[in-house]
């Protein structure tokens, strides 16, 4: 395994003035504080991050009015030798990431406070790939997600070789890699804005991906050429890495998987598929 030093950007913000349904259900102010398997979501992620080697710092991106509530949870981890810093979030998630890099020319791995099924092995696989590239995205296949739970993830990107689910683990290797993020700075619902998609990826690339005429790796090679960067996919064997806590359905699946890892007796959730 590579132990290339990296700084972690941990996205933990929620929209100002919007009450997250899971937080409301749990009676807490912020989604990052929602308890799962007896600890807040963010605590499970911090447990993994602070027990990894060669983590230079963890920058927790959070809206200013939420920092006071989340700070006590972070205190538990401050004596583990990894600097932990709170960074003000922006209403645009990409702006938040760019702000958290502080313009520094170093390697960053980006994840989220609801990524409670993150593992040391998954992180190290991402780190090793980032060490030989300018940027990474992480995914796993539909079959691997379904092997964990049929309702663990419902959104897949279909390529010629397989259907893939995104995992909340991304990497930026140096200041130059921010060029790929710049195209998203317009904000809004990117995937529903055709003009924005064409400007970012190019019309022909979108057509090839939409018609499943290229594999994932071929698609990444085309995007690498477009951005002038070496972008690589990380494809995990562990389908659970695509399950983050977005809603009541994924909470139930994540709680069951995490509970099994922790030796808890939690029944497998029965979830009725959407009609």
Distance between the termini: 44 Å
The rounded Rg comes to 18 Å
CATH homologous superfamily placement of the domain at 6-139 and 166-186 and 230-261? Spore Coat Polysaccharide Biosynthesis Protein SpsA, Chain A
The main β sheet shows up as: 8 strands, mixed
What percent strand?
15-25%
- Please count the beta strands (DSSP E, at least 2 residues each): 10
Helices and strands, in N-to-C order? EHEEHEHEHEHEHEEHHHHEH
Shape: globular
CATH hierarchy class name of the domain at 6-139 and 166-186 and 230-261: Alpha Beta
CATH topology annotation of the domain at 6-139 and 166-186 and 230-261: Spore Coat Polysaccharide Biosynthesis Protein SpsA, Chain A
Broad structural category = alpha/beta
CATH architecture of the domain at 6-139 and 166-186 and 230-261: Alpha-Beta Complex
Helix content: 25-40%
Uncertain runs: 186-192
Number of helices: 11
């Amino acid at each position: 395994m590579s132990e290339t030093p990296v700084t972690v950007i941990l996205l933990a913000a929620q929209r100002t003035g919007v009450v997250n349904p899971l937080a409301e259900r749990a009676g807490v102010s912020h989604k990052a504080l929602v308890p799962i398997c007896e600890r807040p979501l963010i605590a499970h992620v911090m447990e993994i991050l602070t027990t990894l080697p060669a983590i230079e710092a963890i920058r927790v991106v959070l809206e200013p009015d939420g920092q006071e509530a989340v700070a006590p949870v972070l205190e538990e981890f401050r004596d583990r030798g990894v600097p932990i810093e709170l960074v003000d979030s922006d209403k645009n998630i990409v702006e938040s990431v760019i702000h958290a890099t502080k313009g520094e020319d170093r390697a960053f791995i980006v994840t989220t406070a609801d990524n409670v099924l993150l593992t040391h092995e998954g992180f190290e696989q991402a780190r090793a790939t980032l060490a030989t590239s300018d940027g990474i995205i992480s995914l796993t296949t539909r079959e691997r997600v379904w092997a964990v739970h049929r309702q663990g993830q419902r959104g897949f990107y279909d390529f010629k070789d397989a259907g893939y689910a995104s995992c909340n683990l991304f990497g930026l290797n140096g200041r130059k890699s921010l060029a790929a993020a710049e195209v998203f700075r317009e904000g809004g619902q990117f995937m529903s804005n055709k003009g924005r998609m064409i400007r970012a990826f190019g019309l022909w690339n979108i057509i090839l991906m939409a018609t499943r005429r290229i594999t994932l790796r071929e698609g990444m090679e085309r995007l690498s050429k477009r951005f002038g960067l070496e972008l690589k996919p990380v494809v995990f064997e562990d389908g659970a890495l695509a399950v983050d806590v977005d809603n009541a359905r994924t909470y139930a699946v994540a709680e069951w998987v995490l509970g099994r890892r922790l030796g808890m007796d939690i029944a497998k959730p029965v979830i009725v598929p959407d009609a």
